[in-house]
Amino acid sequence: MTANLERHKYDIVVIGAGGAGLRAALEAREAGLTVAIVCKSLFGKAHTVMAEGGAAASMGNVNEKDNWMVHFRDTMRGGKFLNHYRMAELHAKEAPDRIWELETWGALFDRTKEGKISQRNFGGHEYPRLAHVGDRTGLELIRTMQQRIVALQQVDARETGNPETNIRVFAEVTITEILNENGKVAGAYGYRRENGAEVLFEAPAVVIATGGVGKTFKITSNSWEGTGDGHALALKSGANLVDMEFLQFHPTGMVWPLSVKGILVTESVRGEGGILTNSLGERFMFKYIPDVFKNQYADNEAEADRWYIDQDNNRRPPELLPRDEVARAINSEVKAGRGTEHGGVFLDVSKRLSAEIIKKRLPSMWHQFYELAGVDITKEAMEVGPTCHYVMGGVEVNPDTAAAVGVEGLFAAGEVAGGMHGSNRLGGNSLTDLLVFGRRAGMGAVAYVKSHGANPVSDSTIVKAATRIAAPFTRVGGENAYSLHQELQEITHNLVGIIRTRAELVEAIEKIADIRKRSANISVTGDRMFNPGFHLAFDLDNMLLVAESTAKSALLREESRGGHTRDDFPGMNPTWRQVNHISSFDGTQVNIKAQSLPVLPKELFDLFDVHELEKYMTPQEIAKGGSN
Ligand SMILES: Cc1cc2nc3c(=O)[nH]c(=O)nc-3n(C[C@H](O)[C@H](O)[C@H](O)COP(=O)(O)OP(=O)(O)OC[C@H]3O[C@@H](n4cnc5c(N)ncnc54)[C@H](O)[C@@H]3O)c2cc1C
User: Fold this and answer.
1) What is the best residue among 42, 110, 421, 431 to mutate for testing ligand 1's pocket, by most ligand atoms within 8 Å of CB?
2) Is the separation of the CB atoms in 549 and 583 below 8 Å?
3) Which domains does the chain have, with CATH numbers?
4) Where are the beta strands (DSSP E) in 218-362?
5) How far is the centre of ligand 1, averaged over its atoms, from the C-alpha of 416 (Å)?
6) Cis peptide before 318 (omega within 30 of 0)
7) Using one digit for the tens of pLDDT, what is the confidence trace for 488-542?
8) Cβ(434) – ligand 1 distance below 6 Å
9) Catalytic residues, which ones?
10) Which atom of ligand 1 is nearest to the CA of 416?
């Protein structure tokens, strides 16, 4: 079985070629280690290319009052103080350097009149903070790092005669297993998507950078790759997931035509002045400003409109509230019968900006609506509604090294890692999260490999991984992966969606368990060549673990916070703020345990007005005033 196997040996294997994976790989390669980058899609096509609005970093180019402390505060408020404070701190402090570094590598950001990197407004950010390239920022991020990888390969070509001596990309390869030997990571196993041929990577350190889980849901802005593979790979190899109940439903996805339902309408449309109205023409967001945000958001149209001209003396428009608030508000308007014909609300930027500026600042949005819906957004409103966009929960990691808790040699960065964004991510914080923690994962993996050395993979481990890949072909007349996937998406959409209840979550958990049982009997017809049914069999297994973890964590959390809303527990509860939910997998089912959140150190505690903290924390926590 192992004789003809394609085998490779590297110091570090990075699974994923999005922003986080590429940044980790660059760090490792520049430290002199050998690196394999493995990705399901073509190189350059990772989900990160879809990121539109920009990358948040407090460079202070547009408003010099911005700095890491303001960014840290915004991030913690956005996450409703459930964030791992150390991740939010490192992110806020290091994001500007990561953007400037990208520029030195050739990224061409839009500029201010003075020639600095331009920064735009976004929901939840106090100052204009998103470095951007029109609305194609993710593409520039990927292009720049790809170019840097190619440049390093050219160095290798000159010095060794082989461009792939130290860094090689394995595109269209799906990893199905993280291999462990003697309780430590020993490599990764997978197959080539084109022909199903199996591939073994031996490496003492693996960085998971596989992105999100959106395809677990029926309506999503995520690309086809977002099947939660990394979340499941980590669980199966003995790592934990943290706070999987928190999913971000972006308030503005396209609601029609049906074929493109869910595709994202970037938040930049609201950042550039787009307003939300219901079918009665009411600018409804003024009704939905929660108490915790009353000081920062305008409660009348006149002030909200003045903010676009004078941000120092006016409060922000409520369209720029964090995403969870806006998504819930839209959901409520539609449920109250004030939605549009296609079940959304209107988003209009045409009344504030000229056609020329819209086409310059939002070129992809103009094109997307014109081509897909026949709507010219320079003249008419868009119809939008919530879409499953981002998973805040993910692999539990050490904030400084990105090492996965519980498994030696395993690291995780980017959307697959948890903790950074708490219960809700601010727009723009992901792209800099990828850069900050991608780099840290690379550094962490390098340090680990240097101190631990190789960990060879045994034949019996290889045989087990190979047997699992062959299994769906050995069964005849079993379940169909496509039907089970559709069933799963209906369950998550209807029972684990934006608004949740105890009864629905209990029902979801039972139904997911039933699908899991039936999925053990999936059979695949045809052979391994270009066989998407074969690929889905493995993706589905991952999505089932993600869905189980989400539903079980959501059932236990009896409060509403960020991307988790319980109809039966509508308010935020300060006692629940002290709790993280940790998912682990025992080989049969996902188990959830409560774990105390690390306490905010005094120097970070003191960055906030104590009266603001009183809205989130218990009197005992306030009295303690931080941990040291
Ligand atoms: C439409 C849209 C717009 C967005 N705009 C913004 C924005 O403006 N600003 C912002 O900060 N955030 C934005 N986000 C969020 C942000 O784009 C993502 O969170 C981020 O790009 C994720 O990057 P990543 O590196 O973690 O993973 P991804 O970019 O998702 O890459 C994952 C990689 O892992 C690979 N992979 C997955 N599973 C496997 C496997 N089993 N084997 C091998 N390879 C595998 C994939 O092929 C891919 O290469 C947006 C998201 C969407 C959907």
Assistant:
1) 431
2) yes
3) 248-389 (3.90.700.10), 475-570 (1.20.58.100)
4) 241-242, 247-254, 275-277, 345-348
5) 9
6) no
7) 999 999 899 999 999 999 999 999 999 999 999 999 999 999 999 999 999 999 9
8) yes
9) 250, 270
10) 26
